[in-house]
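[step 3/7] fold_predict: job queued, chain A
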Amino acid sequence: MTTILFTDTHQFADWLATKRDSTIVGFVPTMGALHEGHGSLFELARSQCDLVIASIYVNNLQFNSSSDFDRYPRTLDEDVAMCQSRSVDAVWAPSQLDLFPDGQQLLTTGENALEYEGRDRPGHFVGVATVVDRLLSIVAPDRMYLGAKDHQQISVIASMCSQLHQYVNIVRCPTIREHDGLAISSRNRFLTQHGRSQAPIISLALQHMIDTWRAGETEPTTLIAQATSELQNINGATVHYIAVLDGHEMQLTMSVKQGDTAIIAVSIDNVRLIDNMQFVNV
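[step 4/7] structure written:
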């Protein structure tokens, strides 16, 4: 099969309308700069859906500075090639004017967007919710595939969908990691060689939190202190937060239990890296 690239929203919508009958539509929203993490989403969608669509849209609303937006990699040819290799039916890559012909009307977000990434990156989740809402209003998929690495983002999107797109089934997909445990991210390319060599300490600190919990420790502050101490081994790193949340919710847990989630954000070489792991017994 050949992956079709659409840059015009009307043409994409017209094509999609011809595919609706008795078809399960899977959707993977992205900002491009695709990597193996995205590839795993495409593969899962392909195994579960009749039609698989990927969007590529670099969302200006979720960047806190114009310089970050400008330096975000645009790799459309390579991205389409990856989609082709994973049997994605169509890539929809609209421009801002094409996606928002009447201007961007911002959505409001709830309490789950206030802390952590929301606190450190004001307006970020408003931008995420606004764009994903617009994408869903056009694609109207049966299933949307999101990577578990973006734990808080999934929570915010799920809240938005519960109000505006109740027909969408959100599929949370496992985080894909490099051979040394670092969560795969489009941001990893900005790390220096030295920073990249130290970055796996993030996932190790999370794993050690889970190991300590499995050994019987249930006090979140003890686990967080342990991880904080380990992260001090990264030269020049800034730890933005470490928290243990109640399951897939964004509320702190008082006593760590099966299914809770440890989340973390650390900057290395001024590159912000996020990760999380779930507390599960082997």
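[step 5/7] annotate
Residues 124-139 form the longest helix (16 residues).
The mean pLDDT is 95.
exit 0
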